[in-house]
């Protein structure tokens, strides 16, 4: 095997107010792997994802394709890791949806015609063609989530780090997301409470609880282990309960 896509070593993070979110997390994700990260509210999932592209400074080490996530490398890291935030309001800050989705490609120095093509393609991928001139402030929750995904798709990153990508999506949009992620050969790390999505899409699941990894293994084993899930305040996926 080559260099892992993601290598996280003994990662610890405490917020300025003293709340400890991660207490020594270690794992690797191989290139092309698709991994679910689940765990109860407050487990540290979002904190972990934000550390993958260096939004916070933590103890321990994160490497992306062997490149350390340190301030000097952040431009490269952010070209290679696309982070979809849990809350779209953290992602969408421009006056128009076009500007939000064009932001990454423009920063990458692409020509305007290429940028326009990427925006149109990303909007089509999330089923929102023609939304370029709208403002994200005036979209529904699910539409905002889809535009958030488009801001990352337009950058053509190597690693998709997605925080609750299916939250607020209507059933058809959620199905399209699952289909698209299954077809997509990029490395994917998906923080989610949607255990049915995790069960359908991933071969590997990590459970975080209290800032620690308490399980890391085949999804088919972890998400069918009722005792393990209940110990960590989770439930069997609906399709397993049936
Ligand atoms: N800005 C912040 N300041 C202080 N503490 C924070 C901050 N953001 C998160 N925390 C705390 O860090 C811990 C981990 O939070 P995090 O958002 O990573 O959890 P999560 O697993 O993503 O939860 P959820 O399932 O609710 O999205 C929690 O105890 C939370 O209260
Ligand atoms: Mg979260």
DSSP helical segment count: 10
Percent range for helical residues? 25-40%
What is the CATH architecture assignment of the domain at 6-88 and 158-241?
3-Layer(aba) Sandwich
Calculate the mean pLDDT score and round it: 94
Fold-level CATH name of the domain at 6-88 and 158-241: Rossmann fold
Radius of gyration: 18 Å
Any idea what the shape is?
A: globular
CATH class of the domain at 6-88 and 158-241: Alpha Beta
Topology, number of strands? 10
Oligomer type = single chain
The biggest sheet, with number of strands, parallel, antiparallel or mixed sense and barrel status, is:
6 strands, mixed
Q: Which structural class fits the helix and strand makeup?
A: alpha/beta
Provide the β-strand percentage band: 15-25%
Bound small molecules, by name, code or SMILES, are:
adenosine-5'-triphosphate, magnesium ion
**Topology order in helix (H) and strand (E) letters:** EEEHEEHEHHHEHEHEEHHH
Low-confidence sequence ranges: none
Largest sheet: spatial strand order = 6-7-8-3-9-10
The CATH superfamily of the domain at 6-88 and 158-241 is P-loop containing nucleotide triphosphate hydrolases
First and last CA, distance: 38 Å
């Amino acid at each position: 095997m080559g260099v892992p896509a993601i290598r996280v070593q003994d990662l610890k993070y405490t917020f300025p107010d003293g709340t400890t979110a991660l207490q020594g997390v270690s794992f690797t994700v191989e290139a092309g792997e698709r991994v679910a990260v689940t765990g109860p509210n407050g487990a540290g999932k979002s904190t972990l994802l934000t550390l993958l592209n260096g939004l916070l400074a933590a103890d321990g080490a994160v490497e992306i394709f062997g490149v350390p996530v340190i301030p000097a490398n952040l431009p490269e890291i952010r070209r290679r890791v696309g982070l979809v935030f849990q809350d779209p309001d953290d992602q969408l800050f421009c006056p128009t949806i076009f500007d939000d989705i064009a932001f990454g490609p423009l920063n990458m120095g692409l020509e305007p015609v290429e940028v326009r093509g990427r925006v149109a393609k990303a909007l089509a991928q999330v089923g929102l063609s023609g939304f370029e001139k709208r403002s994200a402030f005036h979209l529904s929750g699910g539409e905002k989530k889809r535009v958030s995904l488009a801001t990352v798709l337009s950058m053509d990153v190597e690693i998709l780090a997605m925080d609750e990508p299916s939250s607020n999506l209507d059933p058809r949009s959620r199905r399209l997301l699952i289909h698209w992620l299954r077809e997509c050969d990029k490395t994917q790390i998906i923080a989610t409470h949607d255990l049915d999505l995790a069960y359908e899409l991933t071969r590997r699941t990590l459970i975080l609880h209290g800032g620690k990894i308490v399980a890391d293994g085949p999804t088919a084993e972890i998400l069918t282990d009722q005792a393990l899930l209940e110990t960590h305040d989770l439930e069997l996926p609906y399709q397993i309960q049936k």
